[in-house]
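Researcher: We plan to redesign the surface later, but first we want a full-length starting point. Tokens attached.
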């Protein structure tokens, strides 16, 4: 006697995957360098973001601590949960990290332009501008 048990049919899983793929486009998946923080050019600061479209997570490193947040993305709307981060002390770098972590929940819109990702507030203010990179952590 053989008993088979499943958490859901293949069709249910396929439908769930289709919905997930519609919510998080594959083009968002990957590594990005922060180039602008509000109106300030920060391209020389080597601040790395990693979008994981499978887990709906964004992780990053702003030079000292790592941070992690989840997000929900539908069409041009994106919402980040408050981020968690490691708590190491790095003189002169923590202020930037705190600024980035505090900005994530303020993001409500995303615009993808070729290799750039613009994260905007509800008031259409540029909060973060990211540039796609082949570099990883």
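Model: Full-length starting sequence:
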């Amino acid at each position: 006697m053989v008993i088979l048990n499943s958490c859901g049919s293949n069709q249910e899983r396929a439908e769930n995957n289709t919905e997930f793929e519609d919510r998080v486009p594959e083009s968002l998946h990957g590594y990005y360098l922060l180039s602008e923080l509000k109106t300030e050019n920060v391209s020389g600061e080597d601040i790395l973001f990693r979008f994981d479209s499978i887990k709906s997570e964004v992780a990053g490193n702003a030079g000292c601590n790592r941070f992690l947040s989840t997000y929900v993305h539908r069409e041009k709307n994106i919402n980040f949960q408050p981020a968690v981060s490691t708590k190491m002390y790095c003189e002169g770098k923590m202020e930037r990290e705190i600024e980035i972590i505090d900005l994530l929940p303020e993001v409500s819109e995303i615009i993808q332009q070729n290799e750039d990702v613009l994260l905007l507030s509800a008031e259409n203010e540029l909060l973060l501008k990211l540039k796609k990179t082949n570099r990883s952590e």
